[in-house]
Amino acid sequence: MVDIVHHSVIGFGGALVAQQLGNVDAAVGFLIGSLLPDLDVVFMALGKSRYLRLHQSITHSVFVLPFLAMWVGSLLAFGLDASWIVVALACFLGSLVHIAFDMLNSFGVRATWPSPRRYSVDAFFFVDIYVFAASGLAVWALWSEFPALPVCLAWFSFLATYSSLKVWWRSKVVCESGAATAIPSGVSPLFYYLTRDASGAGVQVGHSRGFRRKIVWEGVTPHVADEVMAVLRAGPMFKDLEEALKLFRPISFEVDAKGDVTSVVSRCVAVRNFKNRYGEITSTLVDGKLVDEVAFL
Question: N or C: fewer beta carbons within 10 Å in the chain?
């Protein structure tokens, strides 16, 4: 859903249920499968911007995961004398659960990769303190040897109810505000970061908060000339992040005293959770040509 901690909780809980039902092979397969899609962490070696572009894509695809599950089943069948088909099926099930929960966050999942479409319901950002607290309670209960099945059912019931309420609330916010994007806060369940088109002048940012869904519109990030965008898109970081993030665009320009060097700061204006610096990069232009990119991710 959000991070490796939550996926570990899901995998641990599912594995304990399978173990209590007497199927150790299924327990091992489900635990591995619940973490398997996050193999895409290897893309970090290509740089953070490329990682964001490829994150939750190839290894989160329903077309790729069956082969990964069969690979895991083969390894365990060979190394641990486990049932190949049981491990592979449990691993695939764990991976599907992983994808389903990742669809709840704002980043979304390219579940049908190689299609570029990302599936996201924006129920949560990446971290939600209430989900985190519920997950921590579930881990404590499992560690304290409470029956795994009731604990998992209680956790899933909470998550399903809370997610449904968040999705419903977000739909109300979008309907009332006319926002193009509504990104949930990771702290307050009633706070959303909003954006909308500013009558063709650019992107206006704002927020919605409280039970009355009070909407406040703030500043406007103006549109940038096409020729400037073409120069910025020549940079691999800018190109990767524009593809991966919602409303990634230049937000400030700084020209040196001589007028021949321009520093352009770009970031995702839809997401303002990380102190308003999510996906931020600085592009340096000299005489209208891109010479450098530095990322703050």
Answer: C
For residue 242, give the DSSP letter: H
**Strand residues in the chain grouped as ranges (E):** 181-184, 192-197, 202-209, 214-222, 248-255, 261-268, 280-286, 289-296
Structure tokens at 30: 């489900």
Look-up of token digits 């400037």: 228
- 127 phi/psi in degrees, rounded to 5: -130, 130
Structure tokens at 293: 């990119």
Per-residue tens of pLDDT for the chain, all 297 residues: 456 777 887 888 888 888 888 888 999 999 999 999 988 888 878 777 777 778 888 999 999 999 999 998 888 877 777 788 998 999 999 999 999 988 888 888 899 998 888 888 888 887 788 888 888 888 788 778 888 888 888 988 998 999 999 999 999 999 999 999 999 988 889 999 999 998 878 999 999 999 999 999 998 989 888 888 999 999 988 888 888 888 888 888 887 656 678 899 998 888 887 676 777 889 999 888 899 988 875
Residue with tokens 């249920």, as numbered in its chain: 17
Residue 15 CA to residue 239 CA, distance in Å, equals: 40
pTM of the predicted model as reported, rounded to 2 decimal places? 0.84
